[in-house]
Design goal:
single chain, 4 helices, 23% helix, binds 1-O-pyrophosphono-5-O-phosphono-alpha-D-ribofuranose, 6-stranded mixed sheet, globular
Length: 186
């Protein structure tokens, strides 16, 4: 069983109400930007982006599809010299005529999204943009264009609202920070 998160949480970085308010704003912005632009596809990168996607899509008031893809995980994935990550689950539809928005929970080094952008560009979508809930810019190693950002956050270990700590607590409705000392202490 995982430990109670209250034993290692430092503070709540983004409370539920702030998350929901920002997601509502992003949904309105996307609805405005893509109105009358043709096929819109929200492409979620598993698994962290799922909670954000399911809230965001309900705040987008124009027709759209959703799809999922997965790449090798941050912890175990081996970045190739080009900074590429391995595709472990591909989407099932062609994106050639689609305006694609990649939906991510967090952009850290940028390698994941940079690789995904490179892969998808080869499939010639009508347009390709990134929507990330959290941007940890201090950790960036490769440049990535992010069209929609929920929150810029400091270089802290965060969890909740889709982000896990040892695979748990993705269900929390807020973003919390981890006290690593307390987390490591049994
Ligand atoms: C996290 C997050 C991003 C990636 C960001 O995924 O969801 O995909 O790391 O890091 P980067 O910018 O340094 O590449 P993770 O591999 O932890 O998997 P998960 O989404 O299944 O939790």
């Amino acid at each position: 069983m995982p430990r109670d998160y209250r034993t290692f949480m430092k503070n709540i970085l983004i409370p539920e109400e702030e998350l929901q308010a920002r997601v509502t704003e992003l949904g309105a912005q996307i609805s405005h930007d893509y109105r009358d632009k043709g096929r819109l596809l929200l492409l979620c990168i598993l698994r962290g982006g799922v909670v954000f996607l399911t809230d965001l899509m309900r705040k987008i008031h124009i027709p759209h599809e959703i799809e999922f893809m997965a790449v090798s995980s941050y912890g175990t994935g081996v970045y190739q010299s080009s900074g590429q990550v391995r595709l472990t689950l591909d989407l099932r539809t062609s994106i050639e005529d689609a305006n694609v928005i990649l939906v991510e929970d967090i952009i850290d080094s940028g390698h994941t999204i940079a690789s995904v952008l490179a892969m998808l560009s080869e499939r010639h979508p009508k347009s390709l943009a990134v929507c990330a809930l959290l941007d940890k810019a201090e950790r960036r190693e490769v440049f990535v264009p992010i069209r929609y950002v929920g929150f810029s956050i400091p270089n802290e270990f965060v969890f909740g609202y889709g982000l896990d700590i040892d695979e748990y607590y993705r269900n929390l409705p807020f973003i919390g920070t981890v006290d690593l000392e307390k987390f490591k202490t049994p």
